[in-house]
Design goal:
Helix content: 25-40%
CATH class of one domain: Mainly Alpha
Order of helices and strands: HHHHHHEEHHHEHHHEEEEEEHHHHH
Mean pLDDT: 92
Strand content: 5-15%
CATH topology of one domain: Serine Threonine Protein Phosphatase 5, Tetratricopeptide repeat
Number of helices: 17
Distance between the termini: 24 Å
């Protein structure tokens, strides 16, 4: 029994050896088919190419709409995916996340476990003394990637299996928890900060710099009390402030035009972008008839709760352009833009309008329009009006049997700039700015000036004072769809609160702050213990 357990576990981790060959593949998940009889590890012969493979894997892990993104966003109040006819049913896979009814058999939970554990194990292989060809740059990147992989697993599951590449393959991996895991992450990030290059804002920020490592270290320290217990430590909070100040010193600053940040152009905020198409973020919520000339239309799935939309300033029932809403809430255009007025655009329809320009920014609610201003209809001929509520054919609130128009849609990346442009933001300066504000608040200071600096930049009214709730709300308004909502809600003690369609049995259940260890992994590694509640 012991030998069977160990050899099966070997297959999970040996698969990372193939990562270097995956860079050009569409599916960037780690292959796990290598023979259990593979030779003992002898070092990575081409560390630079191997690291390219690790970064290629990260691009897919984050850019997908399932797995990491789904566990970070669909489990919160930001996104839900109702079943519309036969679409998006998937045996309840999406509904389980939003309703907090997932189990240890959920495929996204298993995928995130396998993917990010493979990432830090791959970095371990580069950092092994047996890898003699690694340059200082290779080492710094591997230290950053190991910290990132360990942190994602710690944040999601609370325990991190670690296998020494040089250890006997029959040896069960050790497991890091709490302070020990945090110490490993901090040590790696401090080393990465020393070894990575200094870079400010620019179009080439597709690899981590010192600023990116500082950002992740600030993120870890801000959440440290969640991982180790107790309250935020003032020393950790002071260090968050220092880390963000160092990022600012590298030239990063709040940008003037919010939605321009999400274009494939230079801005002052993008710290690390991923070479992965943003099509998932564009098309997963747009309707089937939305800009079919670009990608055949939308996929009509993802939508947000009205209560999240209501966090923004503006008329709750109207988000058409010029309606007085704050910048980050975006707008619904009432017609497209003439091709002559949109430099660099395309006109696939030959109708004189730039492709994609009838699609709005931010939150799409109410009537949607064609390029010439004609109100659009759904496929059944009814007005294409995105609605606040999710109702079935009987008019009852429900996540099943919805029609094609229920739910407010979210569009941060816009098809007018390309339907699948390889430029998805992962780390952004405004997040660091708000982390600094939160660290000041958690150490007894006043975050109001920093929060208002951001709000004024975004065209929102300044606040007289900023409470914890205000700061969480501000993070939601600024960072929606950027994979931080679950993490933020846990830190502010609100991931277990009630929201529309959540299972009443899950309300107040803090066991949901961690995901279950995949059932198969508990069998394969006796050093793991299943998380409470599963």
């Amino acid at each position: 029994m012991t030998m069977k357990r160990n050899t099966n576990f070997r297959k999970v981790f040996l698969g990372v050896l193939a990562l270097g060959a995956l860079v050009s593949c569409t599916d960037l998940e780690v292959e796990q088919a290598q023979s259990i009889d593979a030779a003992a590890f002898e070092g990575i012969t081409d560390p630079s190419s191997f690291i390219n493979g690790l970064y290629g894997a990260v691009n897919g892990y984050v850019g997908d709409q399932t797995n990491y993104f789904a566990l970070s966003e669909v489990t919160s109040d930001e996104f839900l995916i109702p079943t519309r006819g036969g679409d998006w049913g998937d045996n309840g896979l999406w509904r389980q996340l939003h309703q907090h009814q997932w189990t240890s058999e959920h495929s996204f939970i298993a995928n995130v476990w396998n993917q990010w554990n493979s990432l830090h194990f791959g970095a371990d292989q580069v950092l092994s003394p047996l890898t003699t060809a690694a340059t200082p740059g290779d080492v710094a990147n591997a230290q950053f990637l190991r910290a990132l992989g360990v942190w994602v697993i710690l944040d999601h599951y609370g325990q991190v299996p670690r296998r020494d590449p040089e250890a006997p393959l029959t040896e069960d991996p050790i497991v890091l928890r709490g302070q020990e895991a945090v110490d490993q992450i901090v040590t790696d990030l401090e080393a990465a900060i020393a070894g990575l290059p200094t870079e400010g804002p620019g179009a080439t920020n597709d690899r981590p710099s010192k600023a990116v490592a500082r950002y992740l270290l600030a993120k870890v320290l801000l959440n440290k009390h969640i991982y180790v217990g107790g309250s935020p430590d003032s020393g950790d909070m002071n260090r968050v402030v220092t880390l963000v100040d160092a990022i600012t010193a590298d030239g990063y600053a709040l940008a003037d035009d919010y939605f321009d940040i999400f274009r494939e152009t230079e801005d002052t905020e993008t710290m690390w972008w991923l070479s992965f198409g943003v099509g998932n973020r564009i098309w997963n919520g747009l309707h089937y008839v939305s800009s079919p000339e670009i990608a055949g239309g939308g996929w009509n799935g993802f939508a947000t709760l009205a209560e999240f939309y209501d966090l923004f300033e503006g008329d709750e029932n109207n988000n058409e352009v010029g309606n007085g809403q704050e910048e980050r809430r975006g707008f619904v255009p009432t017609e497209g833009i003439a091709i002559g007025d949109f430099p660099g655009g395309s006109d696939s329809n030959g109708d004189g309008f730039a492709d994609g320009t009838n699609q709005g920014f931010g939150f799409l609610i109410g009537q949607q329009y064609d390029y010439d201003g004609t109100p659009l209809n759904d496929r059944a001929g009814a007005p294409l009006t995105f609605k606040r509520d999710f109702r079935d054919g009987n008019g009852d609130l429900s996540l099943i049997n919805n029609d094609e128009t229920t739910g407010i849609r979210v569009l941060k990346y816009n098809p007018r700039f390309g339907g699948f442009t390889n430029h998805e933001i992962f780390f952004r300066y405004a997040d660091a700015h708000l982390m600094k504000a939160e660290a000041i608040m958690r150490s007894g200071g006043d975050p109001t000036p920093l929060v208002n600096e951001l709000r004024i930049k975004r065209g929102a009214n300044p606040l007289g004072s900023v409470s914890e709730q205000d700061l969480l709300d501000e993070r939601g308004r600024e960072l929606y769809e950027e994979t931080w909502r679950r993490n933020d809600m846990i830190r502010f003690g609100q991931f277990t609160r009630d929201w529309a369609f959540k299972d009443p049995a899950a309300v107040g259940n803090t066991d949901k702050n961690l995901y279950p260890i995949p059932a198969s992994q508990i069998i394969l590694n006796p050093n793991l213990t299943q998380n409470p509640g599963y």
